[in-house]
Write a structure and sequence with these properties.
This protein is of the alpha+beta class. Helix content is 58%, strand content 16%. Strands 3-2-1-4 form a 4-stranded mixed beta sheet, covered by helices on one side. It is extended. It starts with a helix and ends with a strand.
Length: 156
């Protein structure tokens, strides 16, 4: 037996679905206008070219690149946020696919800072591992006098 409560929930879900499809269709119309007027971004142009050509391999590649960019950005932001703006002497990142690498230089004998970095890594991995993404830290001390490897992007 359907109650007024369950009817309202169904109505809300229906309205939510209608709104989503309306916004989705409007986005496609805006993209078409941008493509017609040659004002579309490179990403939008590439995606629609691949879709129109039926190039599923290209669509999959573009999707994979977007997923990697999305999760890599979220992971780096979360990692830095967990450090509470108390960043190491040097901080750099590198990523390949779903693996994000951290290079952190900390003051000598600062075991608390080292623990904080390890805990931040663990928290980020707990949050994103199920999505296939992980972060791995290399922690060095200032007296080690190591240069940041050239393939890393230095943040600080």
């Amino acid at each position: 037996m359907e109650t007024a409560f369950s009817f309202n929930i169904l109505k809300e879900e229906e309205q939510k679905r209608e709104l989503w499809f309306e916004e989705f269709i409007n986005s496609i119309k805006v993209h078409k206008l941008q493509l017609d007027t040659k004002t579309a971004s490179k990403e939008i142009d590439n995606l629609y070219r691949a879709a129109i050509d039926g190039n599923l391999d290209r669509i999959a590649l573009l999707n994979n690149e977007a997923i990697n960019q999305y999760f890599t950005t979220k992971i780096i932001i979360d990692f830095i946020d967990l450090l509470n703006d108390n960043l190491p002497i040097k901080l750099a990142f590198d990523y390949k696919g779903s693996e994000i690498l951290v290079w952190a230089e900390i003051p000598d004998n600062d075991s608390e800072f080292e623990k904080k970095l390890i805990l931040s890594e663990a928290k980020v991995n707990a949050k994103y591992h199920d999505y296939g993404f992980d972060i791995t830290s290399t922690i060095v001390e200032a007296s080690d006098n190591f240069n940041v490897p050239i393939h890393y992007k230095v943040v600080k």
